[in-house]
User: Fold this.
Amino acid sequence: MADQYAVIGLGRFGLSIANKLFESGQEVLGIDVNEERVEDSHRYVTHAVIADSTDSEALKSIGIRNFDNVIVAIGNDIQASILSVLLLKELGVKKVIAKALNKLHGQVLKKVGADWVVFPERDMGIRVAHHLLSPNVLNFIEISKDYSVEEVKIPDRMVEKTLREIDLRAEYNISVIAIRHDNEINISPSPDKKISYGDVLVVIGENRDLERFANLQ
Ligand code: ATP
Assistant:
């Protein structure tokens, strides 16, 4: 059975999460205190209800504890966001994901029990700066403070060479885990695989080595 999701706060952030889950075939309940926001959300969620998530009785009557994942996408009203997370955890929701506006807000959300705190503005800002600094890096995931997986546009001078010839492991201490060409992906490519124009390498390694490779053109 699909997981059950509830999204509290149907602003731009909440609606984009709800919509993506809904499009992927998940059951999504949208919740907002604002009637207009609830009405406007009907195309993006399975059901939507008007409720105040700082009201414990309202949450109980929705049956919120039956949801596997509840996303608190309230930002500006910090007090409402914190109180909502506290109530959701007290009511027994297994996984509560909450949006934080700043570091202190995030720390408090963790303290009251949020299982995952996200900082959309901060994280998007980091991604934009990262892309400006390394335009050849199309995407990245930080695995730890020092290691990442990155999608890097292949430098022109490596086109038509094989993975064995460019030997990124020896030259840069990074490993190729896949090659992507448009939407086609080749996982664990053979060392004899020739690189074509427009290929994107999915590589893993230490950040400073990845940077050295990504800035080489
Ligand atoms: P976004 O930045 O995601 O577009 P926003 O700018 O509309 O959001 P936020 O303050 O982050 O403003 O609020 C997101 C949504 O959360 C709003 O639609 C608001 O009505 C709703 N909301 C605020 N408080 C509560 C509450 N206590 N219970 C339910 N929904 C709430």
The chain has a mean pLDDT of 94. The chain is about 35% helix and 25% strand. Residues 120-133 form the longest helix (14 residues). The domain at 4-118 is CATH 3.40.50.720 (Rossmann fold).
